[in-house]
Amino acid sequence: MNTLTDNTTFDLESSSLREVNRALHAPGVSGAKTILHPRGAHALAAGVNAELQITIEGHVGYYAAGMNQQAAITIAGNAGVGVAENMMSGSVRVSGNASQSAGATAHGGLLVIEGDAAARCGISMKGVDIVVGGSVGHMSAFMAQAGRLVVRGDAGEALGDSIYETRIYVRGSVTSLGADCTSKEMRPEHHQELAELLASAGYPEDDTSAYTRYGSARQLYHFTVDNADSY
Amino acid sequence: MCGIVGLHLRNPELYPRLGELLTSMLCEMEERGADSAGVAVYGDPTWSPPGTVTVSVLEADQTAEDLISAVSEHLGTRVSVKQAGATQLVSAPIDVELLKQAILDVAPGCLIAGFGQDLAVLKGVGHPRDLAAEFGLRGAQGWQGVGHTRMATESAVTPGGCHPYAVGDGQCLVHNGSFSNHATLRRELQRKGVQFDSQNDTEVGARFIAEQMRQGSTVEAAVHSLSEEFDGFYTLLVSNRDSFAVVRDAIACKPAVIAETDGWVAMASEYRALTDLPGIDSARLYEPEPNKIYAWSRKEVSPA
Known about the structure:
The complex is a heterodimer.
Chain A: E1 8-11, H1 17-25, E2 32-36, E3 53-57, E4 72-76, E5 91-94, E6 110-113, E7 126-132, E8 146-151, E9 167-170, E10 181-184, H2 188-201, E11 212-216
Chain B: E1 3-9, H1 18-28, E2 36-42, E3 53-58, H2 64-75, E4 80-84, E5 87-92, H3 96-106, E6 111-116, E7 119-125, H4 128-135, E8 144-150, E9 172-179, H5 182-191, H6 201-214, H7 219-229, E10 232-240, E11 243-248, E12 257-260, E13 264-268, E14 284-286, E15 294-297
Antiparallel strand pairs in B: 1-8, 1-13, 2-7, 2-8, 3-5, 3-6, 4-5, 9-10, 10-11, 11-15, 12-13, 12-14
Helix pairs in contact in B: 2-3, 5-6, 6-7
Protein name (chain B): glutamine--fructose-6-phosphate transaminase (isomerizing)
Pfam family, one (chain B): GATase_6
Organism (chain B): Nesterenkonia aurantiaca
């Protein structure tokens, strides 16, 4: 078996995490790769930079699929802290729930979480698209800089706190908005953009008019002299 | 960092496997902290014989035989001592405060690591895997166990700095995180007469909860008071002879995962600590929400 170009199945009960990640990083690697028995391992399929189709059968630990470039990675299970953190391109799909800081600082690609994402989903996101099938926890899109976050359920406290840019679409309720995050009008281009995001994430039937758009009020961009007495 | 684990068994057929399951959970969390470790086991018939109370003792500077003679003579009642690693488990069918005082009288300066009915607390400095072997943890039985792997931040790497902190009768606390105002709160408790064994931040939390419960608070109320008084980061696992509770601070930057089946409830810092539990593939898995207290209790505890 050629683990470089053939479709390959790795089993973490018989291979080490280092061996599996090294095989996924090999120059010229291609094809479909399946990983069995992840058992909550950390940094699984992190740092991949190839057009691979990777399927992980089970729950993963911290930083799974981190820094992904080009690969389409499916996690058939739950993900621990920081799934797809700093992703550059490609896609990551989690069939279960994700722990905190999903998609943190990610620059590009598409992250889909079919279940719920915990606190700080999309923290400091820099261009990634994130679609969450369920709800997100508190301080999601904290200091978000670019990209789009779609939440088909509810959002927790302080959504979009200290947001720079990033368009956030939420279908359900928002417990509270963070500093400088505000609801905005859904213009035709937003309905179109949201419909495209939902379709690419596998939710084409959603009615975009059920969503509210949130974004930056742009009041924190500049120092307001009226606040000088506070310092 | 630090790792915490806890297992509350619902199915009595699993009681003989408590030690084996807890060992697997504890050792899987060794990468989160490898300078010290500790466990509390509820219901092991060797470590805490039925019909007795047990006091867990460290740093007594006496052999088990010498401790048996000295405490038995002091009390006028025969006590038994089991050695598990560096911990000595002193048991006798008497009032727990009497037994504790007798041990402190004959071994002044020793560390009382835990006390109560059905409770054994074993802890020490060293690698979690080595300590679990020294304790003989794999062979332990019981209905509930908690464990901690420590990466020290707030106090020295000493037995007194290890978790669990079991400072109330049958109570036990393990903590992942750090309290930032522990010095202030320690001084306030000291003014009320509470004595401390270490400079550790978690000990302050444990003594705060014990003090609240001594005044009649439920576990839930005591943990709620802690969340109002303490600054810092925490995932806490608070156990009692008949209960098991998990709480995370409002920011929730310290991890936790809970799994439940008909046979057991388990919590750990990370999912990978749970992978050897029977039926984990079909367990209900969830991350506890911030500032929400999750508690379970045993229905069939034998009368005290």
